[in-house]
Structure to design on (404 residues):
């Protein structure tokens, strides 16, 4: 009996070649698994036919949008995760839900191996295979790009490989950028982007308008939160995936969400990427504003610390680990009082929280007012300052010889 392999399939050039390659080199039956994480009709239309035309015995398109947002995106932003201070982890967050969907289909169809089309230079191989290890340790992992028999080292070679087999493809030799798209973001790499001295090319951006050409009049959007999770946009309740989809269009028109980043890959090299996360940028700005209003100083500062570690775990593909689960339990507890409404102003590439309210707000206007002596005595501050600065006072007195 032939080995049956579940392939994480996108319909792009790499995975289109991997289907016949697996059949020819490993004598496999290939089951293609396409995870719909909101990449859009351009990538999904006709993908089942494309997979079967390249030699797959089956192709399963699995709608993962709701679980992608609710179980992966929202926990990541509630934890305050920003990789290296700026990256909202759009590609990294999607990998564990795609791998889980692939494993589920593999089990259902009797596959004994899992395959992916990630190169040996990138982060995604780590993310997919770490998820496989946690979810399907009994299954063989096949990574063609790392195998000696894989000789297709470039686009021209892959196009020729498909042409020789009369396998149709919409790919071309003139593709400039490598892109990854889902509901949360789109990334761009390759071409002139690879030189960090080059400014981002205008033709790379897809989801966001040029901020210089964005409307001259700002717009405001309202986001309502419950336990840190966005549940309504401009007062209308809706599923998380739909909220992000609508907010992407609104914020993108104002040029919000562009990031040009040189990042440290997990495999050791630096890479440059352009990221567009319009809706996500607005949600994160709103959530941080809500935290400012609701969380006490120590809790908020610890959440910032937690977010750094959470971001690294997500980036490194360590989603299905005890530490990530423990950190999420902590972040979820911290987020319990994060209920309220935040208004964010969009203008020329910026997203700025301008109005905020919450039933759990710790902000007391009377307390901070100069008229609030009945609830806060300014005289009390003197003793507080003296104790807070006691260490500095002792050090200075010892240095002067006034105390021994």
């Amino acid at each position: 009996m032939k080995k049956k392999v579940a392939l994480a399939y996108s319909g792009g050039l790499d995975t289109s070649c991997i289907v016949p390659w697996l059949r020819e080199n490993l004598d496999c039956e290939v089951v293609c698994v396409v995870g719909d994480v909101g990449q859009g009709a351009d990538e999904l239309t006709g993908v089942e036919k494309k997979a079967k035309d390249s030699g797959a015995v089956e192709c399963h398109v699995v709608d993962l949008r709701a679980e992608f947002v609710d179980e992966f995106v929202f926990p990541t932003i509630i934890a305050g995760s920003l990789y290296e201070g700026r990256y909202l982890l759009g590609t990294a967050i999607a990998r564990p839900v795609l791998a889980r969907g692939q494993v589920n289909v593999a089990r259902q169809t009797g596959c004994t191996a899992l395959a992916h089309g990630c190169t040996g230079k990138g982060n995604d191989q780590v993310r997919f295979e770490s998820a496989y290890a946690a979810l399907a340790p009994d299954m063989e992992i096949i990574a063609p790009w790392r195998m000696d028999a894989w000789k297709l080292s470039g686009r021209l070679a892959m196009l020729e490989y498909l042409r020789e087999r009369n396998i149709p493809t919409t790919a071309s030799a003139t593709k400039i950028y490598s892109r990854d798209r889902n509901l949360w973001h789109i990334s761009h790499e390759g071409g002139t982007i690879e030189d960090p001295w080059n400014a981002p090319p205008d033709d790379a951006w897809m989801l966001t308008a040029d901020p210089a050409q964005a409307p001259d009049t700002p717009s405001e959007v309202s986001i309502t939160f419950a336990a840190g999770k966005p549940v309504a946009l401009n007062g209308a309740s809706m599923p998380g995936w739909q909220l992000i989809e609508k907010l992407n269009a609104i914020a993108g028109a104002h040029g919000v969400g562009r990031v040009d980043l040189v990042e440290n890959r997990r495999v050791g090299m630096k890479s440059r990427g352009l990221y567009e996360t319009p809706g996500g940028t607005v949600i994160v700005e709103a959530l941080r504003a809500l935290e400012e209003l609701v969380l006490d100083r120590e809790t908020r500062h610890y959440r910032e610390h937690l977010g750094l570690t959470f971001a690294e775990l997500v980036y490194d593909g360590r989603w299905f680990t005890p530490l990530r689960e423990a950190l999420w339990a902590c972040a979820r507890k911290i987020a319990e009082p994060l209920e309220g409404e935040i208004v964010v102003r969009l203008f020329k590439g910026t997203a700025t929280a301008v109005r905020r309210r919450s039933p759990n707000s710790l902000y007391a206007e009377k307390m901070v007012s100069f008229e609030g002596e009945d609830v806060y005595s300014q005289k009390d501050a003197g003793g507080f300052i003296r104790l807070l600065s006691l260490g500095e006072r002792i050090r200075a007195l010892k240095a002067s010889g006034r105390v021994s």
